[in-house]
Amino acid sequence: MRAIGLGSLVEIAGTFAGSAETLARATDIYPPLTDDYPITEYAKVSRLRRMAERLDVLAKLVSLDPDLLDLYPAELSGGQRQRVGLARALMLDPPVLLLDEPLGALDPISRAELQTHLVAIFRELGKTVLFVTHDVREAFLFGSTITLLDNGRVVQEGTFEDLARRPAERYVAEFLRAQAPPPDMTAYL
Length: 189
Known about the structure:
Layout: H1 8-16, H2 20-28, H3 36-61, H4 78-90, E1 96-100, H5 108-125, E2 128-132, H6 136-142, E3 146-150, E4 153-158, H7 160-165, H8 170-178, H9 183-186
Parallel strand pairs: 1-2
Antiparallel strand pairs: 3-4
């Protein structure tokens, strides 16, 4: 378990997490304080301990070295910042995740690696994820259902195959075609 900025509360946590004798001694730590202080402090320490345990689980889930959690954002790479952001979004275990262009600022290699990793995480969690992107490849990777918008208006909703084979409007076909690599380029890949 890891403690993040808990300072002396971590030491206090060890005092409370013991036998009745240890708990009795713990009350001697606070002689000038009211009787409810040690009780409420125990609840705070217990909550902090659960948060630290949850943080460890999430760091493993998003493949983030726990040592990186002590760094400032400017000290992290783009991919590490994205992983921290995902862990932050998952901390309270929401039923639905909204991710708005979460990978847009990454280089192509980091982006592809994180896409693969996120697909696995989302499958494991079984959560509903609203993934906002302008990238057709990402929509294909993440979307069981894709909703294509034009100026805030829903143009078409369905699977990637539906959009590609049966575009509801010319805009759908143009949008997909605009992101397809040119044939000359794919010959070299």
